[in-house]
Design a protein that fits this description.
By secondary structure, the chain is of the alpha/beta class. Helices cover 40% and strands 15% of the residues. The protein folds into 2 domains: 158 residues, 3-Layer(aba) Sandwich (Rossmann fold); 77 residues. Helix 1 crosses helix 2 and helix 1 runs antiparallel to helix 4. The two termini are 25 Å apart.
């Protein structure tokens, strides 16, 4: 664990990121071809499912790049009709299946698996007297809540802010301000736990959070000296957060 200038005594509210922080994604042995085939069958695409999976990757990357540059999350309808499946043979089948299709596309990237210590750490921090919430870039308004509910921590989060609902994406500081407003807490009393320096540090910094902690993943570059991407602490596991945040009760 790498410590920085961070005073946990000033913290009342701990906000978490979701993807990469509370869970990891394990790639499918087939590269997501089976999930792509489900989309093909639903929308009437024909041809090689491996080539369709490749096409989906290219379209998804264009969407992600545009979305990140503009800090804006498209609706599931626009994701499907403007970016991913605009040429679907059965275009009418998109209606009513938008969220399902977006989730299938996300699941084609791999199985989203919660870290074993994620739920226990969230519950322990709450037990220690901290308020906990979640701020996450997520393409679907239903996928994240379902994943949290599956490990019995959805109700532990006092505030859950998703880009799929507010349309604003990290690192735009506005999504962090909105989260604090909903929680009724000053940003100076908040800390953010994430894993991506380019989206999980800059936003909280600009919005006035007291601190930022990164879970050390492949995204962390200790040689990156940009002050807007420098966390106050870096942990190897979520369990190490319990060393930083002692009981307040």
């Amino acid at each position: 664990m790498i410590h920085g200038s961070f005073d946990s005594k000033k913290i009342d509210f701990i906000f978490f990121d979701k993807g990469g922080t509370l869970n990891t994604t394990l790639k499918h042995p087939d590269g997501g071809v089976a999930k792509a085939k489900e989309i093909m069958d639903l929308l009437g695409y024909e041809g090689d499912s491996k080539e369709f999976r490749k096409l989906l990757k290219e379209r998804d990357k264009k969407l992600k790049d545009w979305s990140f540059t503009n800090c804006y999350e498209e609706t599931v309808e626009d994701m499907c009709k403007k970016w991913l499946f605009f040429d679907a043979p059965h275009f009418d089948r998109i209606d009513g299946n938008e969220d399902r299709l977006v989730i299938l596309n996300a699941h084609a990237k791999g199985n989203r698996v919660m870290y074993p210590d994620a739920a226990p750490v969230v519950k322990e921090l709450k037990k220690r007297g901290y308020r906990v919430g979640l701020i996450s870039n997520t393409v679907s308004p239903t996928m994240l809540p379902a994943e949290l509910k599956a490990v019995d921590i959805l109700d532990d989060f006092e505030v859950v802010i998703m880009s799929a609902e507010v349309r604003i994406k990290k690192p735009n500081p506005e999504i962090f301000r909105i989260s604090c407003e909903k929680a009724g807490i000053a940003p100076e009393k908040c800390v953010y736990i994430g894993d991506q320096p380019n989206r999980d540090v800059e936003g909280p910094r600009k919005s006035g959070f007291a601190g930022v902690i990164l879970l050390k993943t492949e995204a962390y570059d200790p040689e990156d000296k940009d002050h807007l991407r420098q966390p106050d602490a870096v942990v190897d596991t979520l369990t190490e957060l319990l060393e930083i945040f002692p009981s307040r009760i």
